Amino acid sequence: MRRTITGFSNPTVKFLRSLREKKHRRREGKFLAEGLRLLTDARASGVVPEILAMASGRPAHPLLDELEAAVSAANGDVIEMDEDILAKVTGKENPQAVAGVFAEFDTSLARLDRSASPIWLVAQALRDPGNLGTMLRTGDAVGAGGLILIDDCADPFSVEAVRASMGAIFTQHLAIARWEEFLPWLRDGAGQLVAASLREPTDYRAAHYEAPCFLLVGNESQGLPEAYEAECDLRVTIPMRGRADSLNAAVAGAVLAYEALAKLEA
Amino acid sequence: MRRTITGFSNPTVKFLRSLREKKHRRREGKFLAEGLRLLTDARASGVVPEILAMASGRPAHPLLDELEAAVSAANGDVIEMDEDILAKVTGKENPQAVAGVFAEFDTSLARLDRSASPIWLVAQALRDPGNLGTMLRTGDAVGAGGLILIDDCADPFSVEAVRASMGAIFTQHLAIARWEEFLPWLRDGAGQLVAASLREPTDYRAAHYEAPCFLLVGNESQGLPEAYEAECDLRVTIPMRGRADSLNAAVAGAVLAYEALAKLEA
Fold first, then answer.
1. Which of B83, B103, B123 is the C-terminal boundary of a domain?
2. Residues A153, A215: one domain?
3. How far apart are CA A136 and CA A168, in angstroms?
4. pLDDT tens-digit profile of A216-240?
5. Model ipTM?
6. What are the tens digits of pLDDT across the range A137-188?
7. Which of B137, B246, B251, B261 to mutate to test the interface with A (most CBs of A within 10 A)?
8. Domain named RNA 2-O ribose methyltransferase substrate binding: which ranges (chains A, B) (predicted)?
9. What single string gives the DSSP state of each residue in B17-38?
């Protein structure tokens, strides 16, 4: 259904804006993705927004037409509004802007099929939504099954994480769990748990990786808790040749994932 | 010299705040770095701020005492101000906050000694200051000589880039140049120019790297211009196993740099 909204105080506008905050996303079970490219990526992955918001009087675009048709075919809402109202939703002064509302995915561990991929990324207490989105994007690139978020991580459904994922939020499986849930789940099946460690001397290039390989990266400032590393099957270190003692968490995950990918495919 | 500032309208406060904007940084030739850790990293690299700003009544900290002594010994200014004034400078409500003003470095190509390191990172039209800072951090980690910024990149002296560099802004050499200046400079000495390409089929792990190796990564959305790639000695591709066609630029740089590092050291 296509309709037009003319006022800032319209409840749908308020609803869309509210999804920029985590508590509202959680309550509604919905999240916001912005930009024609991201929404087109979602559609290519078979995910269509429940609500599509765009500026009235927007220039026609074939990808937008296809998107609108897909939303309508799925009985979703297509909502037009003035540019300045849409800017309140997207936070951007861009008449080309479009935004979509999606239902959040089930993030339970039980849904993951570990045999679906040789590599899985696992992040513990990852606080930066940009890093989180980048890890999803890297996961897609290495053909990972998905990203498992341990303990208190940034919200993967935040606008920033969704944007940094460059569409991988729609292709990678996502699970959220406490360490106390994750470890028994992992040990209940096949799986090598590999820690990106700042302590251990084993070079990441000399290590032996086994599928399904779960690559665990720790918090941006603290790294992994020692007790977590102790539970891992393998602890590997990426060499540091300079003054700094660590890499950006998303970078460390990617360097490790590409090494494991190459070894597993060799 | 230690002094106390009590008003928001104090010229030094205005000066500090102004350094959040590029045009003022360029005019003054100064930049701002925030946080005790970053300032301590700078000092460990032999770089001491010209001005150190901190909250009056701040709890004592041995690292801060050492920093203050180093600034005073170098005839720098130590300035105390109320928490709420400092918050205007740092943009953060944090009484632990400290900020330092540094002179911008000379970023001419002529200053680089290419024989100083086997690896150099080169970024073209890199727009995100977080990516830029992350590349500096990665450069430090792989023992790169520095980062060369080609064409219109984000400002490496922005607060965001400095923060993301995690201190590497003080350890990595930095040069800024147009492509038309860079290429003749590069060809005027030893150096293998390697493009991170989205087009070429040569796997980055099968390639032969030679020191000094200049690893060139392109813009976040466009990648490298075809004409630039054509000028490179080698074009390599990082495999993409998923739906996405590219990695985050800083991630691509890191994956490539670690592979080149391993091959060059083998």
1. B103
2. yes
3. 6
4. 999 998 999 999 999 999 999 999 9
5. 0.93
6. 999 999 999 999 999 999 999 999 999 999 999 999 999 999 999 999 999 9
7. B251
8. 32-108
9. HHTTSHHHHHHHTEEEEESHHH
